[in-house]
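@here heads up, posting the sequence + SMILES for the zinc ion run so it's all in one place. Ping me if the SMILES looks off, I pulled it from an old spreadsheet.
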Amino acid sequence: MNKQEEERRSRLLKMRAERLPDIKKQFEEAQNRNFNSNFAPGGKDEKLLKKSKAVKKTTKKAVKETPKKNEEKDLRKVNLSVSTKKGEMVHHQKMLSQDVNAQATQHIIGLPVNKSRYNGFKGTQVTNAQIKSARPDPEAVRIIPIGGVGEFGIGKNMTVVEYKGEMIVIDMGSLFASEDYPGVNYMVPDIKYLEDNRDNVKAILFTHAHLDHIGACRHLLPKFNLLTPIYGTDFTIGMIKKQMSELEDVPELNYQVVDPLKHEKFQVSEHFSVEFIHVLHSIPGSTAIVVRTPNGTIYFSGDWRHEENPMGVQTDYERIDEIVKTEGIDLMLNESTNIDSPGHHPHSEYDVGENLGKVMDNYAGGRIIVSCFSSQIGRIELILKEAAARGRKVAFSGFSMINNIEVALRTKSVKVPKDTIMKMEDIIKLPDEKVCIICTGSQGEMNAVLNRMVTGAHKYIKIKSTDTIVFSSNPIPGNEPHVVSTVDGLLREGASVIQNGKSHITNLGPLHLSGHAYFEDHVDFVTRIHPKNYLPYHGEFYMLQHNAEMAENVIGIPRENIIISDDGDIIEFSKDKKIRKHGRISVGNKLYDDADQPVHEAVVKDRIHISREGIFIIVLTLSKKTGHLVKTPDIVSRAFIYLDNSEELIGKIRHYLRQKTDKSISTDPELKVLKEEIKEDITHILFDATGHTPIVIPVINKV
Ligand SMILES: [Zn+2]
Ligand SMILES: [Zn+2]
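bot reply: prediction finished. Complex structure tokens:
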């Protein structure tokens, strides 16, 4: 060891020796610390307990001796014996309520003042007042996104096109709520604006049957005039009808089934004519919609992807080119989902099918369980084909899977090889190598089929080590941890798991294809459409921005012809074919639970508050005659402290309550006032002991 090193060591040892008593003390403190460490010997409340006894004495004395004028003041101080200042508690409560509010209102669209480069005001700041007071152009066509732009997550797609009081509505989607919203399953747009203008709505159009486009139907369609025509392809209308059939009162609606390959133009009102265009996406019956207005032609892209070698009919590029050539597109609304994925779509759906076949070959001895999105009818068709070719039978599992297949069969949107589909209860009687199951749960949903197969909760299937499970899907952002937990569960059972995107491990893949165009597909398509004006839609704010940047920087659409809007913004499309942002309507969200019942925002806030701080209930029974406590107060703590471990704190609270009620006899405050005071004091005591402010509910009975 050289000299320098020696010196360093001795310096360190000296430092340690100096700090040792401190470290020891900290260690001992940590050892003694438990939930109510404040009351432990040496804890800060030990002093308080002593003080409290002292206070008790002085209070008694005070009652006897203090002149009457001070009595009231004293009463508020009944033996709280807390060391934290009330201000600290109030501060904690304020911060908490800010947090809870922030969490519970992420979906609320206030009056956004969008300062982005594409805000329609060349990026300059515009005040809400300016936006509100803008005078509308009576000759303009108004495009108003009710939902689906710049929200947290993709969903809730709904757009209104309006001209001189005539309105058409495109799509009516729902949005799955994140885990920030306890007990909320999904949200749908608040359509007060349309309800107020109910009779002006001339037609409702649906681009395709994904839930982010039709998921709100059950709640919203019954609010419109029942005679309003509802247009969509047969599969889309089939899925809407299926959804509506789950309502208690199924409304009779005016459905109009459209075949987009017929190129029909529907004059839906005096000023609007609409045409559906067949496009490729990941669900049957997907379309774009062309709306012809007095000010020009608008192209709503819907959701789309491009494939060189598609299953089924190619996107109707011929018709699109014809419209572009003969009339031109004055305004294009284009979806933004995969704008951040570089390049073109890398492979075709056929490759996925082929690879699923390879899985069946490589794992020929056992059952094959394929999990995918239930709406991917094309994918399901490929699985059926590959299974049939290998003599496997196929059964479906999962509510939405069976629903979608039913509609697909009814509308002839799926080709099924003869004698391939079997019922679940029958397929399990076959030898394993003859079994293929297509199920939901690829997103790791707790209660979906795949997880139930892992836990043994599934009626027919329990995962075994000879099973092979294929994830023919990608996790939707946010679902990754759930997918991991499902995969872990499957692996623990000894099963083989093949996930898309992990071909370096399994040598098998790709096993999934996204339904949305990649960046270069957008470049090609927007070049083809050659729109005068451009509105990115269907995306979170950054996606809209990237889509707009693509349009400006790659396609060369001038910045003033591109607008990124928020839900509720009114975009005016004028006679001279210019677009500008002009005014707002009020928009919002309605929350629903998994039983399709509405959830009030106040309930969500309470749930968040309780999940963070808990709830504390005190039940006091007072004698009507004497006002004294008749029995020991009942105390209930939920999601807060475990009562059995908190005797001292509870003792302190009981003691406080006894004193408080005794005091109240002489002054006889109103029950409401007494409750309020008890609530405040108990909150303070609990905060002092735990650093938390649960919801405190005092209940007072008089007998
Ligand atoms: Zn879609
Ligand atoms: Zn969509």
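MO: Residues 33-75 have pLDDT under 50 and may be disordered.
MO: One more: The first strand starts at residue 141 and ends at 147.
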